Amino acid sequence: MFGSLGFDVLFKGTNMARLLGGLGIALKISLISVAISIAAGIVIGILISLKNPVMDGVFKVYLEIVRIMPQMVLLFIVYFGAAKAMGLNLSPELSSIIVFSFWGIAEMSDLVRGAVTSIPAIQYESSAALGFNRWQTYAYVIIPQTARRIIPMSINLITRMIKTTSLVMMIGIVEVLKVGQQIIEANRKSSPNAAFGIFATVFVLYFLACYPISCLSKYLEKKWEN
Amino acid sequence: MSNKDTILTVEHLYKAFDGTSVLEDINLEVQKGEVIVLVGPSGCGKSTFLRCLNALEETDEGRVLLDGEVINPAEGKSLSHVRERIGMVFQSYDLFPHKTILDNIMLAPLKVQKRDKEGVKAEAIELLERVGLFSHKDKYPRQLSGGQKQRVAIVRALIMHPEVLLLDEITAALDPEMVREVLDVVLSLAKEGRTMVMVTHEMAFARAVADRIIFIDGGKVVEEAAPDEFFDAPRTERAARFLKTFSF
Amino acid sequence: METEAIREYIPLYTQAFILTLKTGWLGILLSAIIGISGGFVLYFKLPVLSSLVKMYVELFRNTPLLVQLFFIYFGLPKIGIALSAFVCGVLGLGLLGGAYMTESIRSGLEAVPDSQKEGAVSLGLDRRQLFIYVVLPQAFAISIPSIVANVIFLLKETSVFSAISLMDLMFQAKDLIGLYYKTAECLILLVVFYIIMLLPVSALGRYFEKKLRFGMYGD
Questions:
Q1: How far apart are CA C4 and CA B221, in angstroms?
Q2: Greater confidence, C132 or A72?
Q3: What is the DSSP letter of B18?
Q4: Residue predicted with more confidence, C122 or A163
Q5: Judged by CB atoms within 8 Å, which residues 13-42 of A form the interface with C?
Q6: Is B33 exposed, middle or buried (0-12, 13-18, 19+ CB in 10 A)?
Q7: What is the mean pLDDT of chain C?
Q8: Taking a C-beta distance cutoff of 8 angstroms, is the pair C142, C112 a contact?
Q9: Where along chain A do its domains lie?
Q10: Is A141 an 8 Å CB contact of chain B?
């Protein structure tokens, strides 16, 4: 009974390894995007906190785009649109990293901006009075204080990115869901009901990838609450 | 014109906020080892004046010289170099919340002055012992009382070996029972010959600690006198009226 | 750019838009029902049910909607539960959203200060009245920004419906691009329709957030 639902297919040949490999691709795309988002988000967030009206306006529009446009739509625009509009032939991997970073940078920089502007002015003044230059003030005083608020949220961003990587199959990246489809297809005759077992497994794999990271994020948030 | 022991010189300082004049033509010479207390009604410009001294506020006109060297807010690079030589303690507790007491004190000498860690640590511990806070060295600022935090802030300024120490109403935000412990530290610094310029509303303390009192009102220096002279026989009507509002 | 093509596609997109809205809002309605029930279960710490709700919340918050949909649409029929793409869409979105809504409602309920409850009890309100007249309205006000954020999130998530052959906006765009290669026109329409769908909700969310902050801090 159990076998007929496709769980046996998992252990045939390299199927399980292929599924995990697909998950690996999803993880790789999200980790690269998160790294870009954090690095660029810190820089942009600090720039925005300087309150230049032009930059403020541009940033608000940028945030709103990210807030209301589904990542799926952005993926299509970059993957299909860029090729058409600019003659750029972006690989699906690069397209998805661009879209995920576009989204992640918006969230990170807004987070950094919020955290930086909530630091009282006296912290800047007393740093200046101690002889810190601007760069040192940010490096030793402002950023370490904001880090405790930002780190749990950026870890949380990792899980959301991992979940969203499931979309990249729609632009042809062979990630875990696509591998699952291929396996089901290949075993269609011998195991016609494999869809149940395979997709259940993909479901569980995603959960196993995201749940520990969510827990870590929650734990750090509680720990650093005050 | 300036005495060879002059450490800080202020020449014709003007400052306005949004067109409203806050400081008008302030002149001052501070000698090495001198303690100057700025008094005056709230909003008279004394805190702004103090902040102009280490260029936290830009001045509109006039200049401030430290040991003959011009402090110019426009030259950002040399600014932090000058600021290491002028220590400042603020009214609100401004310790870094993410660092322990010891780390708060050691951060600037290590990062700004690039001094040797062991030496800085030894000095930090010595200073903490002096202000009676050695046992608190590994705590975080939030675990300390206001008076304790202000004493740490003084130590944090002292460890930079400033030539001048600026104190901006450092007891104004404290509960009355904590004021004493902070002022005692300042008094002992005065005794050992530190050059200090401070703003305070503690008149009895001002009298005890000052070598010279500067009375500022409406952005101008109205009276400048030795403490006994100022408190017992103010020359101007405005100073007399100001002193009447304090009962001590 | 061909305005001709755009004019021609608008009716097709409108159809898809209506289907997307219908699926989306039905899913959101389902998620609200699940969320309120789940939130109550957690707030009152009902035995057994509480741990079940917690497991459900973690499971659905830590997996992508697309994977949930694949399981429901392609997997479940293999054990005899075959549902139409539309029902799968509503169910998937409802289950995903329910997990998020449960958290919003629970944290809203728990954020009502004890002093409020004590004040109400000292006025002589019984437990039921306390909950209905004091806790619930305040909890709802506290939860609103996060509920609106969930609604925006869920409406955006509808963009994956096309993967289970639901003829939504995404499906329409993909289909037309494949048929006529008018990529730019199709993508622009896609963006426009998503703006129509989400901008008002986003603006409403900001309005509520401001109003709530005013209610709490008065500025």
A1: 78
A2: A72
A3: T
A4: A163
A5: none
A6: middle
A7: 89
A8: yes
A9: 7-225
A10: yes
Shortest distance between the Cα of B152 and any Cα of chain A, in A, equals 13
d(CA A66, CA A59): 11
- Residues of chain A contacting C184 with CB distance shorter than 8 Å: 81, 84-85
Question: What is the number of domains present in chain C?
Answer: 1
Tell me the chain B residues in contact with residue A226 when contact means C-beta distances shorter than 8 Å.
142
Q: Does residue C66 belong to any structural domain of this protein?
A: yes
Q: Which chain B residues have a beta carbon less than 8 Å from that of A131?
A: 80-81, 83-84, 108, 112-113, 160
**Helices B76-85 and A121-129 meet at what angle, rounded to 10?**
80
Instruction: Give Cα C101 distance to the centre of its chain.
Output: 8
CB contact under 8 A, A130 and B94: no
Residue of B180 and B245 predicted with greater confidence:
B180
Residue C138 distance to chain A (closest CA, Å): 23
Q: Using a CB-CB distance cutoff of 8 angstroms, which residues of chain B are in contact with residue A134?
A: 76
* Measured CA distances, B86 to B60, B80, C4, C45 (Å): 21, 10, 72, 60
Domain A7-225 has CATH 1.10.3720.10: yes
> Can you give the CATH number for the domain in which C99 is found?
1.10.3720.10
C28 in any annotated domain:
yes
pLDDT at B13 over 60: yes
Residue numbers in A near C156 (CB within 8 A)? 68-71
What are C94's two structure tokens? 């409802």
Domain enclosing residue C97, as ranges: 3-213
Residue partners of B100: CB distance under 8 A and separation at least 6:
B137, B138, B139, B140
Within 10 angstroms of residue C204's Cβ, the number of other Cβ atoms is 14
- Read off the pLDDT band of B247 (50, 70, 90): low
Task: Determine whether the interchain pair B86/A129 forms a contact, defined as Cβ–Cβ distance below 8 Å.
Answer: yes
Q: Measuring CA to CA, which residue among B51, B54, B42, B23 is closest to residue B172?
A: B42
How far A177 CA lies from chain C's nearest CA (Å)?
Answer: 7
**CA distance, residue A120 to nearest chain B CA (Å):** 9
- Whether C218 is in a domain gets the answer no
Comparing CB atoms, the residue among A5, A69, A180 nearest residue C78 is A5
- Domain-embedded: residue C82: yes
Mean pLDDT score, A116-145: 89
Cβ atoms of residues A166 and C66 within 8 Å: yes
pTM of the entire predicted model = 0.75
